[in-house]
Amino acid sequence: AQKVTQAQTEISVVEKEDVTLDCVYETRDTTYYLFWYKQPPSGELVFLIRRNSFDEQNEISGRYSWNFQKSTSSFNFTITASQVVDSAVYFCALSETNTGNQFYFGTGTSLTVIP
Amino acid sequence: GAVVSQHPSWVICKSGTSVKIECRSLDFQATTMFWYRQFPKQSLMLMATSNEGSKATYEQGVEKDKFLINHASLTLSTLTVTSAHPEDSSFYICSAQRGRYNEQFFGPGTRLTVL
Q: Are B52 and B65 in contact (CB under 8 A)?
């Protein structure tokens, strides 16, 4: 079974629009970590955020914000006022302490911001 | 922040040759390193978990005799693709784990093309 589901395969938005990337996870661990990474065409993963299971506070960093809701096992990512430079593939990932901390990646969402 | 390097960043080789990819944690010691493979337009799939001083743990379906992993020191893990074939062409990414709080840092990746 897929531990991390990113239902949106591809999204296109016009510059300055807001966009939300969905992430739903599945785990039986009480202690786990959730991540978002950006992968531009160069391939290098860019770390965006790390959240542990005990911290449900939403976070805002500039134009980026994250909504973590344990009740729905979701960890959604919103980009406000999107820019062309935001175009990339975004991966949500889960790490569980009882499986040796390996990462389970979602299938990724390819975001295209149209100028 | 912690830095993980990979060398080479890209390699092209003939079918049947072996290719070694290095993963180094530059400013911290990593008892555990992970190797991932990513095919075009797909997610990252864990290949193996590498622990310093012990044998690597391979994921189901990954041939341990084909993908040799050596984690000889706390800052270096190597992945050798033996007798590479075109179907091994992929993007290989390593990550290094720091500390016991599940901080993982990803390398920039190595793009392997087998002709």
A: no
Kindly give the confidence (pLDDT) of every residue in chain A, 115 residues in length, as a single tens digit, with 9 standing for 90 and above: 679 999 999 999 999 999 999 999 999 988 899 999 999 998 999 999 999 999 888 889 999 999 999 999 999 999 999 999 999 999 999 998 777 777 899 999 999 999 9
* Contact across the interface for B102 and A107, Cβ inside 8 Å: no
Closest CA in chain B for residue A37: B106
**β-pair partners for B38:** B44, B91
Q: A16 to chain B, minimum CA–CA distance in Å?
A: 26
Ramachandran angles phi, psi of A71, nearest 5°: -60, -30
Rg (CA), chain A: 14
